[in-house]
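Q: What residues go here?
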């Protein structure tokens, strides 16, 4: 979700319930307001091909956020699906879109380790 949103995975400067990007993503997807989370620099509204790719990546990421291990794809499946998205999205290779802000691409210093707690009953509403 960091790539799609240009937000840090863990940010203690956000409100308590929004410290984990995963919690924000699940809430936005369930509320049907995912567009609020997508980095506007991606300009997906002006690039339908990129919108398809971003939507596919978000759907995969959502499955990875499932609270129960057996509901999450294993890494082989994730890699295969990302390869498929890459193959289907080759048309975007030549499309002009901007990189996300440097805050997502730069190394982030961290003095603590945070683990994600399970979200309660995630519904698939992507």
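A:
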């Amino acid at each position: 979700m960091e790539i799609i949103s240009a937000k840090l995975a863990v940010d203690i400067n956000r409100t308590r319930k929004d410290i984990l990007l995963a919690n924000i993503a699940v809430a936005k997807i369930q509320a049907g307001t995912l567009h609020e989370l997508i980095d506007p620099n991606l300009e997906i509204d002006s690039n339908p091909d990129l919108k398809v790719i971003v939507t596919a990546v978000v759907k995969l990421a959502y499955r990875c956020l499932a609270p129960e291990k057996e509901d999450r794809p294993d890494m082989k499946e994730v890699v295969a699906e990302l390869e498929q998205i890459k193959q289907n999205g080759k048309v975007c290779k030549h499309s002009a879109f901007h990189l996300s802000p440097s805050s997502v691409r730069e190394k982030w210093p961290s003095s603590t380790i945070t683990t994600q707690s399970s979200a309660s009953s995630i519904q698939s509403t992507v």
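A: Context that may help when evaluating the design: The helical segments are 2-5, 21-31, 48-64, 75-88, 102-105. The two ends are 14 Å apart (CA to CA).
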